[in-house]
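Case study 2.
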Amino acid sequence: MNYYLYKLRFLTPIHFGASNSSRSLESSAMSCCADTLFSALCCTLARVNGDRAVEKFCETVKKERLLFSDTMPYYGEKLFIPRPFLSPERQADIQRDPMGRKAMKKLDYIPLSMWSEYCDYLGGKSSFNAVSARQSFGSSYAVEKVSLKKQEKPEPYSVGLFSFNGDSGLYGIIGYEDQNELNDCIELLKLTGHGGIGGKRTSGYGKFKLSGECEYLDNPKTKDSRLLSEMLIGNFGKWMLITTALPVESELDRAVSSGNFRLSRRGGFAYIPGESTPNKKKTQHFFAAGSVFGNRFSGDLFDVSAGNCKNAVLGYGKPLFLGVKI
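Prediction:
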């Protein structure tokens, strides 16, 4: 499989509701999972080319001719990947440093430029400077809105948003087998940017453009993308998810027995073109990006349609992995 790295430059604030929270409307995550991206691509494709085109796209993904990572933050040329859910082999100096402990607890992403240092920390070979690893990508805030639908009185509510700094945004990785299929996917991604991604798109949130710094990882341009390429294609003893994904039932026991993982609750609503109201999706628990396993699994597209959906709604659950060597 070949890999393509794309960068998104956001033109408006974003709202990615955390499905782990019962108050997901009032806060926003900084990045989105692959199932959110996949749903947005399918909605765009349905509006532009109809249901048959969506079926063909889903079949291409099921056959693993196209695979997607979660989105992850970048700052200039610096790329960040999820912090792996692994504990260090020994208590390092950071445990005796209150500022370092606090920074480590808040460290969700590791800069690729410090990846080898972090692996040495996990292996008990050295300490790790979590303070220098942290990066501000933007700011979170809430805006007050008023609902006027079917209400005798206006009802106020809050929407959580995140705005990226001018030199920051999100990047993702697409695994592909065929160049033409990748080209079509890139065009679809560009079209999706006009309508936006995430929640509250009717309020203008989540709009983006594809950055000119996209690249093919078989010919990486920077040190970070070169390391990323090596981690995608090399042979390793452990594998870290960069996609919030779920094994099929026959793969589950093997994955659990070899894994250090966290679960991510996935649910929310499906926005289906032609239907006036969104449809609530089934709730599932996926392995979160950053989960580490001794072996890889294939996952699937899962039917997440609830009883009120007229048609099947497929949720993305196929993984991409990075090799981890401690």
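The chain has one domain: 2-324.
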